[in-house]
């Protein structure tokens, strides 16, 4: 279906025949449309958003990046822009208008004129929150009921309210001031006696977040409790909105992408490779590479300081690459394990003593095993005088690289810095410096150079 849809779109673009394309788009699934959307030129994307049924157009639009949303809102026909805005959920609508406002405030003001006063007010309220907080993720399209209502009254109310709600599987109970006091599942409601009061069947122990809760904490809570929806309250405890699982999936993808970028020393938020030009990619990668090359220059200074050692025993240089590579790999493994454990709350910085002891033992076992392997290679090469040098140096390097890789993320977390900043290239560079020092110092001491 994907290839057929792509071929139909390209034919429509080439021949100007849109009727067959319109029919194909009506039959296509949203995911199939999204799969071909990025492969189309701007003209093709514009055509798709124009010809799609308005509900599908809004669904496709909501999945686009903020930059693409802003671009299409500038170029689509006014009638289609209005239809898309009307079909979007409030949280998606607020995100889209915020993206436009950052690039073109005047256009954002004109787009808001398409909305009715109530929707405008709700969007204005949502855009007051930071996008990486619960308030920026939530939607105010929820169902709230009173504790004094009967099940029969709630069901009647639900029939009227359901079409405008994001989800009806959980209903939230509020008091006269709008404060959250309980939660009720649709299942509990259906099986209860129609005359039963909500206060008799609601769960008063509600797990919730505040509007200023970080999105990572929201995602962690929903994962821990297996929630599909989570209520959000303001500073006075009043129900402000709900965060649904589809928004959290986006958060998890965003956070994972950010951490992966940081581990590769590309510390630029919201980087989408397919949309980034060469200049942005250059800037995204340059800063850390400059830091790493400056750090790496220390290795050349170390080599110069131990030039006499290398001149006396040239064979020492034969084993430098394997020592430094092994140290970097060991440190990267250790750092990755600790960073992931911190992210999943399996570890906390206060566990540093236990981690230090464990990683010292692990590092010793790894160092001993790898040193035996490399010593065998040295012996086969006939450099018997270097056996203790290479063996001890690799053992110490693996031990210390393992400890550095484990302790650095803990130290950064303690300082309130994202542990993912301990990138693989940084660990490798530090291990190179550490490895050179250990190797050449051991050689000088053992060989009396």
* Major sheet: 3 strands, mixed
Secondary-structure-based class equals mainly alpha
What assembly state would you assign to the polypeptide chains in this entry? single chain
- Helix-residue proportion: 55-70%
Q: What is the overall silhouette?
A: elongated
- Please state the average pLDDT score: 82
The whole-angstrom Rg is 30 Å
Uncertain runs: none
Distance between the ends: 72 Å
Q: Got a strand count?
A: 6
Strand order within the widest sheet? 1-2-3
SSE topology string: HHHHHHHHHHHEHEEHHEHEEHHHHHHH
Total helical elements: 22
Q: Which range does the strand content fall in? A: 5-15%
Which helices and strands, and how do they pair?
Blueprint: H1 2-15, H2 19-27, H3 30-37, H4 42-51, H5 54-62, H6 66-75, H7 78-87, H8 90-103, H9 105-112, H10 117-126, H11 134-137, E1 144-146, H12 151-161, E2 170-174, E3 180-185, H13 186-191, H14 198-201, E4 209-210, H15 215-225, E5 229-233, E6 239-244, H16 245-263, H17 278-305, H18 307-312, H19 320-343, H20 352-381, H21 387-414, H22 424-447
Parallel strand pairs: 1-2, 4-5
Antiparallel strand pairs: 2-3, 5-6
């Amino acid at each position: 279906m994907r290839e057929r849809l792509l071929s139909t779109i390209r034919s429509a673009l080439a021949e100007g025949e849109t009727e067959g394309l319109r029919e194909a788009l009506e039959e296509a699934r949203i995911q199939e449309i999204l799969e071909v959307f990025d492969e189309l030129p701007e003209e093709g994307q514009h055509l798709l958003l124009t010809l799609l049924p308005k509900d599908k157009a809004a669904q496709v639009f909501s999945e686009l990046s903020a930059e693409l949303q802003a671009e299409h809102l500038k170029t689509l026909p006014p009638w289609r822009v209005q239809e898309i805005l009307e079909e979007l959920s409030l949280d998606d609508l607020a995100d889209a208008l915020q993206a436009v406002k950052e690039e073109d405030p005047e256009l954002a003001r004109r787009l808001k004129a398409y909305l009715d006063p109530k929707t405008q007010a709700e969007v204005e309220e949502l855009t007051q929150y930071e996008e990486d907080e619960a308030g920026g993720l939530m939607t105010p399209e929820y169902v709230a009921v009173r504790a004094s209502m009967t099940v029969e009254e709630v069901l009647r109310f639900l029939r009227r309210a359901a079409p405008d709600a994001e989800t009806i599987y959980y209903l939230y109970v509020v008091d006269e001031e709008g404060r959250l006091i309980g939660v009720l599942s649709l299942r509990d409601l259906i099986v209860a006696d129609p005359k039963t009061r909500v206060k008799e069947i609601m769960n008063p122990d509600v797990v919730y977040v505040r509007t200023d809760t970080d999105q990572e904490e929201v995602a962690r809570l929903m994962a821990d409790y297996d929630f599909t929806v989570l209520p959000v309250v303001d500073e006075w405890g009043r129900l402000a909105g709900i965060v649904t699982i589809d928004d959290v999936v986006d958060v998890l993808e965003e956070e994972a992408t950010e951490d992966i970028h940081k581990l590769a020393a590309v510390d630029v938020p919201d980087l989408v490779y397919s949309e980034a030009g060469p200049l942005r990619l250059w800037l995204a990668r340059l800063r850390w590479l400059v830091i790493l090359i400056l750090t790496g220059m220390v290795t050349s200074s170390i080599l110069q300081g131990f030039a006499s050692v290398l001149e006396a025993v040239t064979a020492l240089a034969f084993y430098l690459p394997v020592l430094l590579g092994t140290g970097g790999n060991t440190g990267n493994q250790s750092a990755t394990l600790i960073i992931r454990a911190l992210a999943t709350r399996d570890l906390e910085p206060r566990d540093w003593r236990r981690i230090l002891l464990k990683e010292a033992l692990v590092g010793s076992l790894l160092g001993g095993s790898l040193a035996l392997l490399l010593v065998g290679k040295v012996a086969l090469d006939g450099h018997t005088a270097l056996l203790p040098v290479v063996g001890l140096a690799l053992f110490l390097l693996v031990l210390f690289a393992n400890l550095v890789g484990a302790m650095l993320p803990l130290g950064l977390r303690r300082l309130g810095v994202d542990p993912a900043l301990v990138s693989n290239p940084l660990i490798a560079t530090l291990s190179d410096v550490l490895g050179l020092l250990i190797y050449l110092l051991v050689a000088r001491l053992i060989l009396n150079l």
